[in-house]
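Q&A log
Question type: sequence-to-structure
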Amino acid sequence: MTLPIARGVLGLGSNEDLYDPANWQHQVRHAVTSLPALEAALVLDESERQGVARALGDGFPMSITPYYLGLCDKHDPRCPIRLQCVPRIEEAREARGDLRDPLGEEAHEVAPSLVQRYPDRALLLATDRCSVYCRFCTRSRMVGGGGGARPLAHLQGAFDYLRAHPEVQDVIVSGGDPLVMSDARIAALLTELASIESVLYVRVASRTPVTLPQRITPELCQALRAHPAVWLMTHFNHPKELTSQSRAACARLVDHGIPVMNQTVLLRGVNDQASTLEQLFRGLVRARVRPYYLLQADPVRGTSHLRTPIATGVELMAQLQGRLSGIALPKLIVDTPGGKGKVPIGPDYVVAQHAGTTTLRTFRGELVDYIDPETPS
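Response status: OK
Response body:
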């Protein structure tokens, strides 16, 4: 799809600001952030039009890279890509169970921009900026707030905390999206973490392989190697996102020795069909990306129109069991409200247990007895 976006609509400058779709900084600079620019690309319905107006007022901001906007169906407001990035007026509705901070991150902040909810790992919030503001964002309370990348001086308290707490061996660098920062800033942050001997590995959480694959340059991959054990955690949610460009971005990461894991968020109308998830997970494995989690969407305020009942995820996992190999089958996870931690859930394959015998139901619906070994005398 070629975007019919006029330079005048986007308010672009003169020739020195010519748009280069292969340049990630140009993609960010020319992200669609206004109603006229969005209407130049998509035929909006009334819910979208009102939703954009609200987002540009006092709501959760809108920003969509030209690349990701190009994946949208121009005429279909129920397009799975549009549902993820175009605001809708349903975001104004607060449903039962909605929370401003669903994972209790503010209550678990142990140092500036450092959240610890588990004994052995911590979350470092390096920026509040993203290239695309996903409408189901867990941190919609803070992202896009205007602060931008956190200076290393601001993060010094977090580094001091990590040095003083060697039990924290795993650091997740997130935000916002840390990969919208410069290569130099990313390398400096990872170098600082690498200097903390107790931090054994770092996970960088980024959706840029999906929404801004141009960002995954060889130079960025080298910057990510500033820490000897970096993993990239991303969010592919629909097969349409597995474009030649996004697959090439993932290949570049893997070829530089950076493992890539995927956390799909289960979203109503986007990927709540077994056939959609099967196609997505097969495509990810082919791209050398490991399907890691299928996440029950967090109960963020204003996202109830995108969330599914927990029973939906359980049923989908039952349908996928046996249809996909273990390497392509993620765990179904609920990150419990209030920051109590992640809980794996799924279909119950144990039918009965008695006298050392467990009766199991296979994916074909057959009942099979498994006999426990006798206790040695």
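Response note: The chain has three domains: 7-92, 109-345, 347-377.
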